[in-house]
Write a structure and sequence with these properties.
Number of helices: 5
Helix content: 40-55%
Oligomer: single chain
Radius of gyration: 26 Å
Shape: elongated
Order of helices and strands: HHHHHEEE
């Protein structure tokens, strides 16, 4: 059996060089995010990720076949920016703007609530363990929480999904 494993090594001697690269990448990403956000309505009209990707490319990067740009700042500010960084930044920018727009739409016209935890002592009735039913609360990833009624043997008798 062939096993592939990734080993993580901390790079300490070149951290300044890598930080400069990261700074440049983040600056480029910020500019592309602004372009994607500005053109979002047009981007949504495109059917596939590849079409969206190519649309953004034609907005920011000049080539022999695409000499005139709507947003010239990218090629001016990031001359000779490696294509693999540009591809990664475009994909990340589209994802960031898509997530932002989706979250914004979900939160418009919604009410907001303040959740305040408090502590209270509640006396329990004296019962045998086998007669008890408990409420278990699981803070979820896709739901705010899931409440389950469970018997002592682990049988779940009811569930409530809480979304807020």
């Amino acid at each position: 059996m062939k096993v592939i494993k990734t080993v993580r090594h901390k790079i300490s001697s070149l951290s300044d060089i890598l930080m400069n690269t990261l700074r440049i990448y983040r600056d480029a990403l910020g500019l592309i995010i602004n372009v994607v956000n500005e053109e979002w309505e047009e981007i949504l009209k495109l059917n596939t990720s590849k079409e969206r990707f190519n649309f953004v490319e034609k907005l920011i990067h000049a080539t022999k076949d695409n000499p005139s740009l709507k947003y010239e700042d990218f090629d001016i500010m990031f001359y000779k920016f490696p294509a693999y960084f540009r591809r990664g930044a475009k994909a990340e920018a589209i994802g960031i703007v898509s997530s932002y727009r989706s979250n914004l739409q979900n939160h418009e016209n919604k009410k907001f609530y303040l959740h305040v935890p408090y502590e209270k002592n509640v006396p329990l009735k004296d019962r045998k363990l086998k007669e008890m039913t408990i409420v278990a609360v699981d803070l979820g990833l896709t739901h705010s929480a899931v409440c389950s009624l469970m018997k002592s043997d682990g049988t779940v008798t009811d569930r409530l999904f809480i979304n807020q």
